[in-house]
């Protein structure tokens, strides 16, 4: 029997949004959003363009600042906390300690163009985690093997195909050994013949690690195979949530049905 304290740690969600508000000018994109993601969950976010999917991931990378509510990572307040009944911003240092547990891969690969593939991967482990170079290189070489790019170790990003660049971006995110991985349409900018390799790498990571994943994708087959929960967003709200089998075969909400008819 785990002690109550250990049981607590197991039950603490990886991510919790509590009443999160995000506005861009007078456009309220998220209006008191609540949801939790359990540790090891693979959650796919679906929904029409502009429904707030990317905004949620960007909040989790602190690339956007929320206007209300709280976000917790592993039970710890992230960007803001309550002091009495006041919502106060946490320091950049406190945020950084939480952020390093979160990795993100975007549609655009955003590799550092002036660095080699290897240098791209070892940069953050050395400078953010303070790893010795040899340890970071070891890890990077292992990850390059995992994504099938050991022979591109010393290449520059511009010498790689889009699919190869994206696999480097995935390796770079994994190098930080994140607890949470955010994937935003990572195959959308790729030529169709390069999509399968990238999805294969992600499937492999999903099968061999217990990283919590938040996935935004138009690849519904991939979502169906990899995720255990699907959240359907519309207008910054979750309008339906279910396991992938249910949502893709018998969604209840009319707007979900309409959306899936359009994308499937
Ligand atoms: N930097 C920004 N400045 C102003 N408005 C923004 C900004 N980023 C997002 N928005 C607005 O926030 C809303 C949600 O955008 P978001 O990018 O989260 O949608 P999405 O669900 O990811 O859409 P898509 O499927 O097209 O990627 C949209 O109305 C968008 O115009
Ligand atoms: Mg988006």
UniProtKB/TrEMBL annotation:
Domain of life: Bacteria
Domain ABC transporter: residue ranges: 15-260
Protein's recorded name: Polar amino acid transport system ATP-binding protein
Keywords, sorted A to Z: Amino-acid transport, ATP-binding, Cell membrane, Membrane, Nucleotide-binding, Transport
One GO MF term attached to the UniProt entry: ATP hydrolysis activity
Organism: Promicromonospora sukumoe
Gene Ontology cellular component list: plasma membrane
Localization of this protein: Cell membrane
Protein topology in the membrane: Peripheral membrane protein
Protein family membership: Belongs to the ABC transporter superfamily.
Lineage: Bacteria, Bacillati, Actinomycetota, Actinomycetes, Micrococcales
Annotated InterPro entries: AAA+_ATPase, ABC_ATPase_HisP-typ, ABC_transporter-like_ATP-bd, Ectoine_EhuA, MetN_ABC_transporter-like, P-loop_NTPase
Principal place of residence: membrane
């Amino acid at each position: 029997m785990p002690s109550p304290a250990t049981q607590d740690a197991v039950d603490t969600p990886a991510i919790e949004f509590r009443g999160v508000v995000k506005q861009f000018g007078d456009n309220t994109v998220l209006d008191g959003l609540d949801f939790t993601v359990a540790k090891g969950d693979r959650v796919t976010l679906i929904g029409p363009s502009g429904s707030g999917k990317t905004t949620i991931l960007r909040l989790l990378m602190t690339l956007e600042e929320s206007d209300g509510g709280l976000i917790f990572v592993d039970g710890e307040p992230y960007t803001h906390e309550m002091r009495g009944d006041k919502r106060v911003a946490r320091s950049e240092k406190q945020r950084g300690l939480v952020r390093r547990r979160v990795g993100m891969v975007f549609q655009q690969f955003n590799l550092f163009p002036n660095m080699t593939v290897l240098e791209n991967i070892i940069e953050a482990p050395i400078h953010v985690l303070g790893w010795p170079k040899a340890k970071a290189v070891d890890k990077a070489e292992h990850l390059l093997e995992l994504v099938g790019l050991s022979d591109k170790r010393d290449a520059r990003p511009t010498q790689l195909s889009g699919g190869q660049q994206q696999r480097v971006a995935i390796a770079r995110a994994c190098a930080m050994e994140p607890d949470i991985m955010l994937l935003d349409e990572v195959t959308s900018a790729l030529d169709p013949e390069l999509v399968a390799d990238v999805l294969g790498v992600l499937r492999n990571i999903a099968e061999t690690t217990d990283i919590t994943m938040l996935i935004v994708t138009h690849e519904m087959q991939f979502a169906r195979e990899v995720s255990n929960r699907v959240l359907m967003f519309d207008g910054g709200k979750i309008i339906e949530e279910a396991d992938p089998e249910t949502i893709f075969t018998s969604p209840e909400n009319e707007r979900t049905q309409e959306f899936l008819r359009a994308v499937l």
